[in-house]
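INFO  loader      accepted 1 record
INFO  loader      residues=187
INFO  predictor   begin
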Amino acid sequence: MTRLTPADLEAARDRLVPDVVASGLSVLFCGINPGLMTAATGHHFARPGNRFWPVLHRSGFTPRQLRPAEQEELLSYGLGITNVVARATARADELSAEEFREGGRLLEEKVARLRPAWLAVVGVTAYRSAFGEPKARIGPQERTIGGARVWALPNPSGLNAHWTAATMAEEFARLRLAASASAPSSP
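INFO  predictor   done
INFO  writer      dumping tokens
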């Protein structure tokens, strides 16, 4: 990968990054919003310190650890990626409460259209903000969004020191097991 300069990253501010989606996914992972590295590369969870890709593999969702540039391969596993807020920022705290609420509204429409079995929001704080659920905790949620069951996952950012890769992988694996158990069986 070409080394990006600070100017390259700043030029990616406010860019939109295409979702990796298809209809009828088993799990649609939903990030908070794209970071500048993601926007500059066009690959979700692209910052080297982000633990999404290692945790996804470690939890059993993928047979090997994918690189961000291989994100389209997720579709073959019934997985996809979107974001609560589409525009790229350096930090999530640059987003307004209104952006989160509007992002939640748009996400609900997207989920209703794509019909994944599960919506997995990576970042319980983003879930709380987007859907007005201030007491939500990590794990399965009572509500559905756009017809999908919802699971709040820990944020895989390297800045989230409360969760290790191992404890995150355990929580992601809980979702994987629930998604497997609720998947329709093949004839």
